[in-house]
Design goal:
Helix content: 25-40%
Bound molecules: shikimate-3-phosphate
CATH superfamily of the largest domain: Enolpyruvate transferase domain
Number of domains: 2
Distance between the termini: 6 Å
Strand content: 25-35%
Strand order of the largest sheet: 2-15-17-16
Shape: globular
Structural class: alpha+beta
């Protein structure tokens, strides 16, 4: 894809697709609940379709209709073995959550993925599940992995890695395990799984004790399905939000955005940088916070963000780095270790591609430093994405100020935001 400079700003109301994290959970949890569940505004991107096809291949009756799906759930033990390996493409969320879910099932499953997913760490979910008695066999710590039938036992976990995927995998295993499993989280991670399990009647309790969170779940209670309206994805909206901020004469409104406090670090960070962002029409639906967001062009200044921000916005550092490149003073973002094990080594690609664009930046340990300047000379006009959707979209936004910028392998954008290019070009963007 080629991303070109825009001159008249971007203006309008781009349509942001449904939230990716909530969409995955909106397929998995109703599939093992009882009753018919109608899910509106589900994200139909490649990642989510892998979760959908996985559950279908295990016998779940799922009817599809534009951006609505209807799941006929038949309870915790209603899944049956898939006829072949379950292929999960690029989706780490599908892989970690399904490993947990399938550990407690009475059949064997094999999970596979694309090249990038097959190099991502799976021991982080396999090891704690093994403590519950799960039988999981990884390939050198990654996919392909197989899960054999076993009787799980409840365990008390103290999570060392801050990861909603690990936490959710454990909760989904505990859901069908007799007895009480407890999880202590030392850092905040997104809590969509707990919210949905609670509203489906799971025997789950969450408590904040000091700066830790304790989750207790007593398994083998059948769930009852509720209808779900998936809110729109803050992470996807962040690309357009930053684009409006860094381009003159811009004003956009993005609607129906999930503003879950365990995930809204990008808004807090951009406001700290002086962004003119208004959250309006705050409301709640399915126990999630939702709002509309109004953004206008803003002069940004740099900022220092501690590691606590990484917990609240891990997916947004690629686009935040673009915002920081157009600020009037340096920024430092600390504690980005987890960025190295995402769809790509994002810390490495942010540095490489910013440097390709002429931006002075460096990393020390897991901290990222950006020293913006008024003008940039592109040094290497080929943005390397390693098939990472968020790197591709972030550098499309970079192109609106520096373009034309060539973005390699930009088809990866379909993993989370298949309508990205159309939506952007509709409001004044210029991607080819
Ligand atoms: C996700 C959790 C995060 C995030 C990913 C989606 C989820 O990963 O980066 O895009 O849906 O639970 P980790 O939990 O591994 O940090």
């Amino acid at each position: 894809m080629i991303s070109n400079i825009i001159t008249k700003g971007i203006n309008g109301m781009p349509k942001i697709p449904g939230d990716k994290s909530i969409s995955h959970r909106s397929i998995i949890i109703p599939s093992v609940s009882n009753g018919v569940c109608e899910i509106n505004n589900i994200l139909k991107s490649e990642d989510v379709l892998h979760t959908l096809n996985a559950l279908k291949s295990m016998g779940v009756n799922i009817a599809e209709n534009k951006n609505k799906i209807i799941i006929h759930g038949k309870g915790l033990n209603s899944l049956r073995a898939a006829k072949k390996e379950i292929y999960l493409g690029n989706s780490g969320t599908s892989a970690r959550l399904l490993t947990g879910l399938l550990s407690s099932q009475k059949f064997k499953s094999v999970l596979t993925g694309d090249k990038s997913l097959s190099s991502r760490p799976m021991k982080r979910i396999a090891d704690p599940l093994t403590k519950m008695n799960a039988k999981i066999y990884t390939t050198n710590g990654s996919l392909p992995l197989s899960i054999e039938s076993s009787n799980l036992k409840p365990v008390n976990f103290n999570l060392k890695i801050p990861s909603a995927q690990i936490k959710s995998g454990l909760l989904l295993a505990a859901l069908n395990t007799k007895g009480e499993t407890s999880i202590i989280e030392n850092k905040v991670t997104r809590d969509h799984t707990e919210i949905m399990l609670e509203s489906f009647g799971a025997n789950i309790e969450m408590k904040n004790i000091g700066n830790k969170k304790v989750i207790k779940i007593i398994g083998q209670k059948e769930l009852v399905a509720n209808n779900i309206d998936v809110p729109n994805d803050l992470s996807s909206s962040a690309f357009f939000i930053v684009c409006a901020l860094i381009n003159k004469n811009s004003k956009i409104i993005v609607k129906n955005i999930n503003n879950n406090p365990s995930r809204n670090g990008i808004i807090l960070a951009l406001k700290k940088m002086g962004a003119k962002i208004k959250l309006i029409n705050n409301r709640r639906n399915n126990n999630e916070n939702i709002c509309d967001i109004e953004v206008v062009s803003s002069g940004l200044h740099g900022c220092e963000l501690g590691p606590e921000f990484a917990d609240l916005m891990i997916d947004e550092y690629p686009i935040l780095s673009i915002a920081a490149s157009f600020a009037n003073s340096p920024s430092v973002f600390r504690g980005l270790k987890e960025l190295r094990v995402k769809e790509s080594d994002r810390l490495k690609l942010i540095l490489l591609n910013l440097q390709n664009c002429g931006v002075n930046c460096k990393s020390e340990n897991d901290d990222l430093f950006i020293f913006p300047s008024k003008e940039y000379q592109i040094k290497n006009n080929l943005i390397q994405t390693d098939f990472d959707h968020r790197i591709a979209m972030a550098f499309c936004i970079m192109g609106t100020r520096l373009g034309p910028l060539n973005i390699k392998d930009s088809d990866s954008i379909n993993t989370s935001f298949p309508t990205f290019k159309n939506e952007f070009n509709n409001i004044g963007g210029n991607f080819r």
